Amino acid sequence: MLKLDAILLFMFRQVKERLKKEVAAMKNQFPGFRPGLVVLQVSLDLSLIILARIINLDSILKADPTDFLKVLRRIVAVNENPAVHGLIVQLPLDSINPINTEKVTNAVAPEKDVDGLTSINAGKLSRGDLGDCFIPCTPNGCMDDAEISCSCQSKPIGELAREVDLFSEEVEPYGRSRAKIRLDALKRMEKQPDGKYVVVTGITSTPLGEGKHTTALGLAQALGAHLNINTFACVQEPSPGSFFGARGIAVGGGYSQIIPLEEFAFGMISHVYILQALFDLLVPLRKGQRSVSPAQLNRLKKLGIEKSDPLTGTEIRCFVQLDIDPDIATDSGSLENEIMAILSLSSSEEEMQQRLAKIVVATNKSGDPVTTEDLNVSGPLAMLLKDALKPVLMQTVEGTPVFLHTSPLADIAQGSPSVLADKLALKMVGSKGFVVTVSGHGADIGLEKFFNIKCRYSGLRPDVVVIVATVRTLKMHGGAPPVQAGLPLPKEYSHEVQLERGCCHLKRQVENAQAFGLPVIVAVNKFSCDTDTELELVCGQARQAGAFDAVQCTNWSEGGAGALALAEAVQRAAKLPGQFRFLYDTQIPAADKLRTVAQKMYGAKDIALSPKSIEKLVLYTKQGFENLPVCIAKTHLSLSNDPMLKGVPTNFMLPITDIKANVGAGFLCCLTESVSFILLYL
């Protein structure tokens, strides 16, 4: 603490010296100039007198908070005084007398509003007119996620494990703040009743994200640390690359995040890296070249082939084993994605090994699937993944327990934390507790896959759906231009008309969630630039759309206390009788399943199958895979397949360009023209 104080004092002195030089230069340019700053104190605070002595403040005006008109007259007098260049109004933190803070703030002349809080200065700031307004210094005083994480002291992982009733032999510590949990714990608790199951999703977001994970962790903290209810949060593991992305690392932020930040953000015990070892087992690579063993070289020579890399198409057909058709083989991106999906969907080591054995890596010339079991590698694959099947236990800044486990993508897979993490957490919280989990992207993509794929295989049925929305994103759906990281919001984001238009998208996503028969709560993630009128408009529109409730959340800045209204709404909704239902029956033809999702979730007119996708459907029907659920891979930036179409697009065709059978994971991955298999884990 002393070290931090010394650093702050050093920075203060640097700023003070810089300002002295700037004032001296201005005095040389304008003789007789003297900067004037006035503080109007609408409260009795002795600390302000001490501050005045430190900064050589010349004038402190006082006003009685009970006399509102006198406060305004004081402000007008300072506005009209040419010797005063800046005015700070200090309002009381608490008062028995009501004070109209908005009127007081906007009474200050914009050119003297050094706090930058008047509506005029705020509007200029939001439009990017940075040269013509005062920029509030408050954001510069806000700690970022890394600073908040470093300022928090986490409980020793052994203490946290004991608090959640784990035995020492069930916990494998990794340092002071993390531990893997053995699956023996789930077997020990298998007869215990499950707690309430809450899934957090969102609307179709901007590229910056909307704070689903922050809201989920804030909700868990509100339930656990503030309402004293047994609560667990379950989130996906972040990939190292996401730590540096504009959207954040998908494990919360501000005072609703997992700590220590540095220990999980860079995947020190991440399961992501195991995928590379698995891929090397199936498709060995060395220095960018596939290794060819001496036995394989001898076989090539017997076939009259004197080289090993590269082989022509004819030479490959002569060399391949198991009569494989090289034109129908699984690519590396699809393979790694399927292995991660298997890890996420398996409820036991036995189920994981069964799923790994079903991975189809190719098709032979007779049209039959070739699996990892045929290659005799499913056993080694299971051995490599055995340790990765254990969830990782960590905690939030308020000490709420969290499971981090697996990271399947939300476009070409189900995009949610593991089944094992959810099942274990539900047993640990007991019948009166809550488990908060997250689905990737918007309700049209991640939530649909969470229900139709994850819940279908896990047997779990959620009790409540929470949809996270922001004023910023709804304005984008109402016609405001795209936002970019690091740049001020375009001026269109200061208009309410875009918000009113964009609420049609919120209505559509509420309807998407309601299609599964569960109560829906809308959580409006409040930003500092949002007005009360805007927030009330969004909440009102959400309720009109059929949401059980809609509440504002400030948990980024306030932690669990900022999500108490959401927690109380979730408690009420969880008491309603469940009427969960799937969107489709897996026994119907695959094309009909695709059509159902496209029309009911995206609002498409119909699907358009390419010749290649039709051929794949015929092949998979012959191979017996037609009854698998479907996983549509499309852009997350629009309800349609076109990322530029915002709001609620209508009358569009959803093009299906290719289909991959992820038999081990248990779904048909259907690609639209906006998505391709690109490895995104590392």
From TrEMBL:
UniProt EC number: 6.3.4.3
Gene3D superfamilies (alphabetical): 1.10.8.770, Formyltetrahydrofolate synthetase, domain 3 (3.10.410.10), Leucine Dehydrogenase, chain A, domain 1 (3.40.50.10860), P-loop containing nucleotide triphosphate hydrolases (3.40.50.300)
One BP term from GO: tetrahydrofolate interconversion
GO CC annotations, alphabetized: cytosol
Pathway given in the UniProt record: One-carbon metabolism; tetrahydrofolate interconversion
Secreted among keywords: no
Domain of life per record: Eukaryota
Keywords: ATP-binding, Ligase, Nucleotide-binding, One-carbon metabolism
Chain ranges of the Tetrahydrofolate dehydrogenase/cyclohydrolase catalytic domain: 13-115
PANTHER family: C-1-TETRAHYDROFOLATE SYNTHASE, CYTOPLASMIC, C-1-TETRAHYDROFOLATE SYNTHASE, CYTOPLASMIC-RELATED
Protein name: formate--tetrahydrofolate ligase
Source species: Sinocyclocheilus anshuiensis
